[in-house]
């Protein structure tokens, strides 16, 4: 098993990391990272608090992802999302979330009857919270020309440009350097 994470994280909120599972959104190079139940379970294992298991409905998760994107996009513009997206989000948020349990060894474990559904409930709740908080004004579009990712800019000056300095920021710096030396 590879130690390299399969999915990108670091957007600043779980719901924004979930949106990133449609990589290069809005570009011709778009990549679907949740094509099937196996991929959804892998995302839950990597990004959620508890091990994946239960019913992994990839099509439903993709619908929820698009509803989260619609909500965040609308909230940034001071609007409400479409009724279908709002209904999907509210329905997902109503499901039980993972519950913390402290083991006899002092380790914190998270448990859920349906870990995938519980993790998606966390995603929906996080999206609803972000969309209604003042932090929504700090959600940014990555300046990478083909990235399409959203991220929460928690930098003090609030002028972060890239979703990740390790990928998009580094790529932009290399392009600038190539332009100067050419």
UniProtKB/TrEMBL annotation:
Pfam families: ABATE, zf-CGNR. Residues 138-180 form the Zinc finger CGNR domain. InterPro entries: ABATE, ABATE_dom_sf, Znf_CGNR. This is CGNR zinc finger domain-containing protein. It comes from Streptomyces hokutonensis.
């Amino acid at each position: 098993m590879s130690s390299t994470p399969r999915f990108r994280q670091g957007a600043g909120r779980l719901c924004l990391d979930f949106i990133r599972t449609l990589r290069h959104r809005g570009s011709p190079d778009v990549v679907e990272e949740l094509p099937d139940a196996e991929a959804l379970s892998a995302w839950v294992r990597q990004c959620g608090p508890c091990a994946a298991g239960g019913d992994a409905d990839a099509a439903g998760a993709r619908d929820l992802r698009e509803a989260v994107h619609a909500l965040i996009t609308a909230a940034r513009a001071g609007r409400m999302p479409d009724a279908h997206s709002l209904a999907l989000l509210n329905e997902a948020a109503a499901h039980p979330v993972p519950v913390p349990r402290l083991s006899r060894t002092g380790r914190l474990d998270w448990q859920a009857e349906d870990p995938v559904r519980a993790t998606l409930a966390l995603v929906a709740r996080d999206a609803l919270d972000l969309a209604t908080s003042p932090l929504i004004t700090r959600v940014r579009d990555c300046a990478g020309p083909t990235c399409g990712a959203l991220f929460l800019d928690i930098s003090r000056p609030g002028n972060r440009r890239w979703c990740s300095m390790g990928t998009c920021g580094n790529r932009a710096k290399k392009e600038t350097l190539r332009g100067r030396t050419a």
